[in-house]
Amino acid sequence: MVRKKRLIQPDQYMRLLNMDLSQISRFIGETEYQNEVNELARNFSGISLIEAALTRNLAETYQNVINIAPGSLHELTERYLARWDIWNVMLLLRRTQFGIPVTQIRQVLIPAGGLSPSVIESLLSRNSLCQMVEGLNRWEFHKVLSGLCSGGYHKGLFAEVENSLYIAFYTNLYRDARSGIRGGDALLPYIRFEIDIVNIRNLFRLRAGSSAEDIRQFMIPGGNIRPDFFQRVYQTEDRQQFISDMQQVKILPLLETAIQNVWSDVSGVEFDPAEFIWKRWSERKTPLFSMVMAVSRLRLHRLEQISRRYPFSVLPILSYLEHKRYEVMNIRAIARGKQFGLDPDHIRRYLIL
After folding, report:
1. What is the pLDDT of residue 46?
2. What is the pLDDT of residue 72?
3. Cα separation of 171 and 179, whole Å?
4. What is the per-residue pLDDT across 70-97, written as a single tens digit (0 to 9) for each?
5. pLDDT at 271
6. Which residue ranges of the chain lie beneath pLDDT 70?
7. pLDDT tens by residue, 230-240
8. What is the pLDDT of residue 29?
9. Looking at residue 289, what is its pLDDT?
10. Considering only CA atoms, which of 281, 268, 309, 141 is closest in space to residue 205?
11. CA 144, 147, 152 angle in degrees (round to 5)?
């Protein structure tokens, strides 16, 4: 089995919340991030040092796990981590279109998927969408990008492309897990659940910002909840019908619990999660970040639960890698919060533990 390095524990996050940036740098320099902090300290300091060290360590962790995972575990891990290719490609496309500095983008790129660091580095030198698409002509999802050259950029284009990429990713992952590969059957329940989570998130976003009458084209197939259900809920204006539908597929209780957990650390706050969900829905407002955080916590906890059920499958590896991902996000959230002088209790609500 893959040997997993120790992750930062909840009580250590509480200590980090009471540190300044220099203390955070010293703290992570005494953990698994020591090599990165020591090496990058020559060229970075403060928040830049913290973020660069976190990003590099995360990428190296993912690559190391892929390299040492045996047999079918290697193959399934590599296929699951192809999602990072989408993350990187979307960052590269936005850099090209909006002129974001290369140094800024390089700090948040995570070469953990099929696109090698050398390929990603070469793409950073391309200065148009067409050049970027051409440079990705061997990428498995290249066809999704083909319209970027001919159609030109318009508002909402990247959201459409990103959605199409994730549909292609999950469609392939679901197909591969069902193909008979060893360990794929253990991964399928989690893939279905994750597809549901992504579709729920997209449902709320489409409700807030879309004028489409039929949203089924934006829903990823293969989950436990059929796209027809999301289409029906999307058009719902009645509170009781909305609650009934969401309870029917057990979405509402999951969201209520997850959102309540986000707010449970805030003493003295009376909060009704069901009313919060309905209010955002009825007013066609984009879900607050607290809802996104709630869904992320929900997905992480479910992955951990399923991995315990299948201890000799690829799931414990994926669970570790996802916890590692959120560890980096948590430290980054604390560091950025400190940079802007936010209160520790406020920052804590944005941690995924």
Report:
1. 92
2. 86
3. 12
4. 888 889 998 999 999 999 999 999 999 9
5. 61
6. 1-5, 258-271, 286-291
7. 999 999 999 88
8. 94
9. 66
10. 281
11. 135
Q: What string of H, E and C letters represents the secondary structure of the chain?
A: CCCCCCCCCHHHHHHHCCCCHHHHHHHHCCCCCHHHHHHHCCCCCHHHHHHHHHHHHHHHHHHHHHHHCCHHHHHHHHHHCCHHHHHHHHHHHHHHHHCCCHHHHHCCCCCCCCCCHHHHHHHCCCCCHHHHHHHCCCCCCHHHHCHHHHHCCCCCHHHHHHHHHHHHHHHHHHHHHCCCCCCHHHHHHHHHHHHHHHHHHHHHHHHHHCCCCCCHHHCCCCCCCCHHHHHHHHCCCCHHHHHHHHHHCCHHHHHHHHHHHHHCCCCCCCCCHHHHHHHHHHCCCCCCHHHHHHHHHHHHHHHHHHHHHCCCCCHHHHHHHHHHHHHHHHHHHHHHHHHCCCCHHHHHCCCCC
Which CATH number among 1.20.120, 3.40.50, 1.20.1260, 1.20.1690 corresponds to the domain 70-182?
1.20.1690
Q: How far is Cα 65 from Cα 40, in angstroms, rounded to an integer? A: 23
Closest CA to 47 of 332, 329, 345: 332
* 29: CB partners within 8 A, 6+ apart: 37, 38
CA angle 181, 325, 218 (to 5 degrees): 65
Model's pTM, two decimal places?
0.84
Indicate the burial class of 168 (C-beta count within 10 angstroms; 0-12, 13-18, 19 or more).
Answer: middle
Neighbours of 104 (CB within 10 A): 10
How many Å separate Cα 23 from the centre of its chain?
A: 28
Separation between Cα atoms, residue 113 and residue 9, nearest integer Å: 27
Tokens (6 digits) for 245? 């539908």
Structural tokens at position 149: 């050259």
Please report where in the chains the tokens 């090599």 appear, as a residue. Answer: 35
Question: What ranges do the domains of the chain cover?
Answer: 70-182
CB 16 within 8 A of CB 54: no
